[in-house]
Amino acid sequence: MQSKKVRILKDQVERKFLPFVRRPSRYIGGEINQSKKDIASCDVKVALCFPDIYEIGMSHTGFAIIYHVLNQLDYVACERVFAPWTDAEEIMKREHLPLFTLESKAAVGDFDIVGFSLTNELCYTNMLNMLDLAQIPVRADARTEDDPLIIVGGQAANCAEPIAKFVDLFILGEGEEAVVELVELFKEQRKAGATKQNMLIEAAKQFSFAYVPSLYKFEYAVHKIKSIKPNPPQLPLRFENAVVEDFENAPVANAPLVPFAQTVHERVTVEIMRGCPGRCRFCQATFCRRPIRYRSVDKIVEIAKTNYHATGFNTVGLLSLSTADYPDLEELVLRLQEYFEPLHVGVSLPSLRVQAQLQLLPKLVTSVRKSGLTIAVEAANERLRRIINKPITDAALLAAVEAAYKAGFQKVKLYFMVGLPGETDGDIEQIVDLSCQIARLRKRVDKKTAKVNITVSWLVPKPHTPFQWLTQKDIAYFQDAKSLILQRKRKLNAGFLRFKFHNIERSILEAAVARADRRMSDVIETAWRSGAKFDLWDECFDYDIWEKAFNQHNMNLEECAQRAFDTDEILPWAHLAGPTKDYLLKHFSKTMQSIKRDCVS
Questions:
Q1: Topology (CATH level 3) of domain 370-515+563-601
Q2: Is the peptide bond before 232 cis (omega within 30 degrees of 0)?
Q3: What is the pTM of this model?
Q4: 266-363 and 370-515+563-601 agree in CATH topology
Q5: Does 1.20.140.10 match the CATH number of domain 10-230?
């Protein structure tokens, strides 16, 4: 692992690229608070990649934290890379311009480490595309000692097998401390003259969060996994998530970058807690991100102030899986309000769980942005909520919404999910009924009917959840459910309800890929080579490409999505940290028992 000279492409980028792209602000870098070092003087060079466009990646808090943490190390130069949009890619290929970083306009392929933050399975083709644009072989076994080490972190790392053939090492769990340990090991190993393979073996031995897929051999019996064997044999067969124990003092980007282009979220974002005390049985994050940890009110307020004065953003966002479960939320909001209201800076709250605390909250937050209150209801009645382990009562939900209306909120956004176990047509129609009831509640306050926006998603059974063994509903089921909802809306003459539905085919693909083993790598590569990329974008997503890729490898996309797993078989993700099988089986058993009781009654 010898250090290479990094090519600086600034002149080519400025002459042959920037004048011709539609949005040059995505690629120029140089933002306020950017960290730019002399690459040549740094021992370790990291290209930190986000497999989506600038506007999305710049709003990702985890990406910003890793960028900050690595650049705090004197010997590391960490530079950002986002996926070029289609127009930019065409120009790069025409001009033979390799993928470059924002800070120095340096060739990504010349860096020591190329790290990806992956949060969704439908970003996999973008990762391959970025490797290819960087002139790095997409397959790990095709790379040489001169190629960068490819590392992947983020939520998708806990379901690593579908992209195992492309990645050298996965970081499981929380990255801010783990990446420091890895780059230190990399520096030491290279100084000692170790090969890339020896470095990977050493990382696998030292760190329980480091998964090197090339060191594990899988044996198959048709579509099932027969065995998993490590090589060398002394390597572990079970990994653990990296956990930041001292969350109070966990690293934060005290001077976040201020983007040139308008991004999805332009705000001061403060992570107030990690983990979620809820156990929604469909939610991967709540089962994988343990234990629950809280930041103190004093620390949160301090971070918010520092970030505000470093950026000038006019909104403070409180980030967590379940903000309403923060134990000192009322005190926190009052403290933030006291400081920021005179500065005309608002407080933004994410989707909130319904509970007594939420009923009280609207009375306290006069400075909270009141364009709308967002609540993830998920299911339209208490029976289904018991099945998914989301114990919200209708009475609590309606009381919370009425309190919000009285506090000045005028709109409500609701999230529902269709395809839940034990679901009936009546349950689906109740989504409209409950939404109508919530909209009309506002009449008690100001004689008006509220505008309610409802987003309906389709259940994707996820690894590391109690629903991981379940089949997904088929396309026809989801299409019929959509029709039921729209017909019910027309019957109730509910023009004040605005429904938005997730793309059904995209959810089917997500289910097929998410629970696959490493043989899915061949399908993903075939789809990418056939033109699949930006699969999260409606203007780019092409289901036909994916169907043909599955067929080319003697697989059926919909059958893969609808596959049910036996509780005694080896799951492709069982070794990749997360909750124990026994714990998930208890939740799965309770789900099945609840459905059975409902059927009997």
A1: Transcription Regulator spoIIAA (3.30.750)
A2: yes
A3: 0.94
A4: yes
A5: no
Q: How confident is the model at residue 375 (pLDDT cuts 50, 70, 90)?
A: confident
Of 485, 499, 491, the C-alpha closest to 453 is 499
**CATH 3.20.20.70 is the classification of domain 266-363:** no
Residues whose CB is less than 8 angstroms from the CB of residue 600 and which lie 6 or more positions away in sequence, other chains included:
none
Residue type, 115: G
Q: What's 485-549 look like in SS3?
A: HHHHHHHCCCCCEEEEECCHHHHHHHHHHHCCCCCHHHHHHHHHHCCCCCCCCCCCCCHHHHHHH
Share of the chain above pLDDT 70, in %: 95
Residue 395 has pLDDT above 60, yes or no: yes
Peptide bond just before 291 cis, omega within 30 deg = yes
From the number of C-beta atoms within 10 Å of its C-beta (0-12, 13-18, 19+), residue 191 rates as: exposed
Do 378 and 280 touch, CB atoms closer than 8 A?
yes
Using N-to-C axis directions, what is the helix angle for 475-491 and 425-440, rounded to 10°? 40
Least confident of 261-270, 366-375, 560-569: 366-375
Distance CA 329, CA 345 (A): 18
Q: How far is CA 314 from the centre of its chain?
A: 25
**Strand 497-501 to 346-348 pairing:** unpaired
For the chain, what are the domain ranges?
A: 10-230, 266-363, 370-515+563-601
In whole angstroms, what is the distance from residue 470 CA to residue 460 CA?
Answer: 9
In this predicted model, what pLDDT tens digit does every residue of 53-87 receive, in sequence order? 999 999 899 999 999 999 999 999 999 999 999 99
Other C-beta atoms closer than 10 Å to the C-beta of 249 total 10
